[in-house]
Amino acid sequence: MSGQEEVRIGEMILQKSSFTSDTNPGGFPFQKKTAALIAIPRGGSLAGASGSAPHPLYFRPQFDTILLKQEKFHGIREVWVQEKIKLGISSCLLGERVRYDGGHKLDHFIRDTLGLFIEWVPVCPEVESGLPVPREAMRLVGSPEAPRLVKSRSGDDYTDSMAGWAEKKLAEIAREDLCGFIFKSKSPSSGMRGVKVYGPSGIPSRAGVGIFARAFMEKFPHTPVEDDGRLCDPGLRENFIERIFVFKRWKDFTKKGTVRDLIEFHTAHKLLVFAHSPKHYASLGSLVAHAKNYQIRVLQAEYLALLMEGLRLIATVKKNTNVLHHMAGYFKKQLQADEKKELLEVIEAYHKGLIPLIVPVTLMRHYVRKYDEAYLKRQLYLNPHPAELMLRNHV
Ligand code: SF4
Fold this sequence. Notes:
Blueprint: E1 7-9, E2 12-14, E3 20-21, E4 30-39, E5 65-69, E6 75-82, E7 85-90, H1 108-113, E8 118-123, H2 125-128, E9 138-141, E10 148-151, H3 159-176, E11 181-183, E12 195-198, E13 204-208, H4 211-219, E14 225-227, H5 234-253, H6 259-276, H7 278-289, H8 296-311, H9 317-328, H10 337-351, H11 358-370, H12 374-377
Parallel strand pairs: 4-5, 7-8, 7-11, 9-12, 11-14
Antiparallel strand pairs: 1-2, 3-6, 4-6, 9-10, 12-13
Bound molecules: iron/sulfur cluster (SF4).
The site of iron/sulfur cluster has 13 residues, from helix 2.
């Protein structure tokens, strides 16, 4: 698999940072597409290294995707192309100079690494609601539950303007079908938690939520959200990214709106949910077992609420160890004594914090493939997000 850049030729947009594979890697949202795989010589351009006319395939509309490979001509064939996940983001985190002081807050991990898998929908509430750059800084004042957004020096109250704009913007965002939102931390407009709120004493409490972030979370309560500060924590980062991939799969699975699709989704996510919350795993199982008692829309709504609540809980080392032992139980008969011993030792080393989760998971994947274990093969726990993000590689 490899990352690619977006290139425009005439009216055609060539594939942007696709991750492709000849077989369906499973796990993430992949689609089968016919692609023209075209060689661009190293250091060459789309017009060819010699400056000759573009390759005629560039202009053939029948190809969904044109992937540019650096090494050699790959011909035309069917490949699996990873669909990008749509996420909202505070514009300044992508490097846009929209902050009150004319600066930005570019986050390299978000833009350059996570961004390979994401289609961004940038939002700057202050600028989009009509404020200039640069502008007077803002802050929250009053009670943390219902603060006012005011300009720091003049004290002008901007709450109603922001709230009115946010209402319209959220209606627009609803059509974007986002799978998550990354907010700029600490901002009185965009911060999703811990924003300073100034009370009458002038001493701030860190109990506020930015005006736009609050409106977003109220309108889309199940959509995964996180802020740039918390994404620096490896556990929170993995948790958020896992949730956006689950949410994307949920949207895809439930498009057709059948109980069968929901059951299929549930089966594939069982161990993933178990790693976050055995309690939610049990509740979701019971809900699915009684599926026929519900109308499908009600069932989906209840399932999603429970699922996202469970996934917000961190998959701790202890919970992951439980899942790994549970999986090891599937190989009781197949594994030789030394293989069993090795597997248990690797799980134990993970439990003690000596090796990262990716090590026992990789060994488990090896046995799942080797013994073609049908149930575990379907488990997204073994493959919840792209390996390129290296989210399970920390101790
Ligand atoms: S924190 Fe929000 S309002 Fe402030 S500059 Fe960034 S996107 Fe705009």
